[in-house]
Amino acid sequence: MQSRPKEIQAFIDAARILFAVETRSKEARDLAVEIFARLEQPGEFRFETRERFPACDSLDKALEPYSDADDEYGQVAKSIKALEPFIGWSRRMTVANASPNFLEGHANGMICGPGGIEQRRDLQLGFTVMKPDVRYPDHSHPPEETYVLMTAGEFRKDRGPWLSPGIGGGIHNAPNAVHAVRSDDNPFLALWCLKI
Ligand SMILES: [Fe+2]
């Protein structure tokens, strides 16, 4: 088994702290505990330059507030920048009830998981970056999921009201629960982890 490169380990260590913050719901924290326990076992590594999408250009602006931060947020930001050329970028191609700028306005970055820098099939750990004023479509997926916001942004569960949990907050999605996110007039970045 390969040992884990230090930039990925630094990202995981800092993300683990952000997902464990006590103000988050118990179900969100319980899910994170299980995911980060699985991450104690490294996967396989793939350091290849990957295709980028237009929304990747919003990464620097989203992470700018953390450029001098020496806390977990700063470490997550620094690790993402160090790993940026190798991140497994993808886009959601189903756009039902998304904003018209959605396709060009979002990118999902896989760090650990299928198609990620750390290839593994038991979980997903990464983030979504969006340009300003983008609404991600209502969607659902079998894996249970939780998010942590690194910027301002709003979430909606089922077809309920839009909520603004603030930086460090987020939502928890039970398997197959319908949810959506949207950015305000600034770039958006939220970490996510899913149990496969
Ligand atoms: Fe989701």
TrEMBL record:
Gene3D superfamilies for the chain: Jelly Rolls (2.60.120.10)
Pfam family for this entry, one: DMSP_lyase
One MF annotation (Gene Ontology) recorded for this entry: dimethylpropiothetin dethiomethylase activity
Secretion signal, residue range per the UniProt entry: none
InterPro entries, per database record: DMSP_lyase (IPR031723), RmlC-like_jellyroll (IPR014710), RmlC_Cupin_sf (IPR011051)
The protein's name: Transcriptional regulator
Species for this entry: Trinickia dinghuensis
Lineage: Bacteria, Pseudomonadati, Pseudomonadota, Betaproteobacteria, Burkholderiales
